[in-house]
Amino acid sequence: LESDEVFQWHVSGGLEQGFYNALSIGCRSFAFFVRNQRSWTSPPMSEEVAERFRETAKKLKFPMDQIVVHGSYLLNCGSSDMEILGRARTSMIDECKRCEQLGIIYYNVHPGSTAGKCTREECLKTVAETLDYVMERTQYITILIETMAGQGNTVGGKFEEIQQIIEMVKNKKRVGVCLDTCHIFAAGYDIRSEEVYHETITKFDNTIGLQYLRAFHINDSLGKFYCHSS
């Protein structure tokens, strides 16, 4: 790609294979999971695997800030159930440490859900505390909060909720946002024309701040506008 815009794809295969898969379709950026995204535990990552990944990035001159690791789908960073929350925090720390082992800068996570057992405000506060907890136990990883579709009890479907989380996080230098186009469209933020897209981005800037926007997850939507379904 000759433009300055960076588009990102999810890729499959061995960790270092992600670079070649991305380049084969003209990509300068990609996202992947560092372990099984539907399991609470995975074997430790060997240093041999991590070194191959780092060496491949170096050989191909692939910037680490163009790679995003997606957190497990099992995580609920805002759960009021201490067992579920404990599992989520332990898994996040494990995944973030794997990112740092690979030399990756950005780790993207869905903020979580009330599960109908706490208020949205309580959930947002717990999410912020979870991010603080993980940051205190890792070295440098930046955690990206993904914009959500506003489905059911999930939080993060409104820009204001993400702003609240960031406001409560202690180390704001290590927090950012991944804007998912399908999710924001489903949540009621229109992007179907250049004009309304700019209006939505202006809302994002006025509410959260563009300085926190670190990545886009560009998806189309099967659902209709404001459907709250991803």
UniProtKB/TrEMBL annotation:
Domain (Xylose isomerase-like TIM barrel) ranges: 20-222
Q: Does the keyword Methyltransferase apply?
A: no
Listed transmembrane segments: none
Q: Which domain of life is it from?
A: Eukaryota
Q: Which UniProt keywords apply?
A: DNA damage, DNA repair, Hydrolase, Metal-binding, Zinc
Q: Which PROSITE patterns match?
A: AP_NUCLEASE_F2_1, AP_NUCLEASE_F2_2, AP_NUCLEASE_F2_4
Cofactor(s), by name: Zn(2+)
GO MF term set: DNA binding; DNA-(apurinic or apyrimidinic site) endonuclease activity; phosphoric diester hydrolase activity; zinc ion binding
Q: Which InterPro entries match?
A: AP_endonuc_2, AP_endonuc_F2_Zn_BS, Xyl_isomerase-like_sf, Xyl_isomerase-like_TIM-brl
Q: Does the keyword Zinc apply?
A: yes
Cellular component GO terms held in the UniProt record: mitochondrion; nucleus
A GO BP entry is: base-excision repair
Family that this chain belongs to: Belongs to the AP endonuclease 2 family.
List the protein's name.
AP_endonuc_2 domain-containing protein
Tell me what organism the protein belongs to.
Gongylonema pulchrum
